[in-house]
């Protein structure tokens, strides 16, 4: 991986964008990890409270949260107008989330 | 899956998807996002004709409602139920197919799913709707 040189890192957004210069899917990977964390947290919390936890519904709810977090990342941009999360990656996040939401809705 | 359940699920899924997209587009527009999803080619490819589709669905449902109101109950046994329900059944079908189009295009285009694959799923949905409508007409409820 070749990263760009550090320069003009005046704002925090510049620091947030910097890892994507090395690895384009950096924030997607972070969000995926957060998604897994959310799903498992919800699942085990439900398991302690209820007798029948439903991991599909947990995934649907978590994917909504990830879509909204991705939306916030697309709004953050540096002085050059480069967003933290690129639009094409955001589309994939939406599609991934919508598939899980649809499975949740159409599940018996 | 029962027809009523299928219809309600499609309606809920359509509303959820529309809600999420409306929220995303509004937030990005009001906060001057540098890369809006409405400018993305996948979104444009998926939803270029969505306004036209929705307009056609509205016209179809309105015409179904008008024909439903204009149905005169005939004297023949069983004919009252069938002629009344076929018109409203068209509205159900329009709602389901419209929702299906809104749901499937983005995923298929973004993931590069070939038309043959979602064509097969579409055929299954069509058959489910036909069976559901047939049951609705036969049973009447």
Walk me through what this model shows:
- The complex is a heterodimer of chains A (108) and B (141).
- Chain A is built from 4 helices and no strands.
- In chain A, 70% of the residues lie in helices and 0% in strands.
- Chain A is elongated, with a radius of gyration of 17 Å.
- The longest helix of chain A is centred in the middle third of the chain and has 24 residues.
- With 108 residues, chain A is mostly helical.
- Chain A has a domain of 75 residues.
- The mean pLDDT of chain A is 87.
- In chain A, helix 2 packs antiparallel against helix 3 and helix 3 runs antiparallel to helix 4.
- By secondary structure, chain B is an all-alpha fold.
- Chain B has one domain.
- Chain B has 5 helices and no strands.
- In chain B, helix 3 packs antiparallel against helix 4 and helix 4 runs antiparallel to helix 5.
- Chain B is globular, with a radius of gyration of 18 Å.
């Amino acid at each position: 991986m070749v990263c760009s040189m550090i320069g003009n890192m005046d704002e925090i957004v510049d620091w947030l964008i910097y890892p994507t210069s090395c690895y384009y899917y950096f924030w997607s990977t972070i969000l995926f990890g957060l998604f897994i964390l959310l799903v498992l947290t919800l699942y085990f919390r439900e398991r302690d409270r209820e007798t029948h936890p439903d991991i599909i519904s947990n995934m649907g709810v978590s994917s909504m949260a990830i879509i909204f977090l991705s939306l916030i990342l697309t709004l953050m941009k540096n002085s050059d107008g480069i967003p933290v999360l690129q639009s094409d990656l955001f589309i994939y996040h939406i599609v991934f989330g919508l598939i899980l939401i649809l499975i949740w809705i159409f599940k018996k | 899956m029962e027809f009523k359940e299928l219809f309600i699920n499609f309606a809920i899924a359509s509303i959820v998807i529309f809600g999420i997209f409306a929220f995303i587009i509004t937030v990005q527009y009001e906060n001057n996002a540098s890369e809006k999803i409405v400018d993305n080619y996948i979104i444009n490819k998926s939803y270029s004709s969505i306004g036209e589709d929705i307009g056609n669905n509205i016209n179809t449902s309105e015409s179904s409602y008008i024909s439903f109101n204009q149905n005169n109950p005939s004297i023949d046994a069983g004919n009252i139920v069938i002629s009344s329900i076929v018109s409203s059944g068209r509205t159900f079908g329009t709602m389901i197919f419209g929702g299906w189009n809104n749901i499937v295009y983005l995923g298929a285009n973004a993931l590069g799913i070939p038309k043959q694959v979602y064509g097969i799923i579409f055929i299954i949905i069509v058959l489910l709707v036909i069976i559901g409508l047939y049951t609705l007409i036969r049973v009447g409820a």
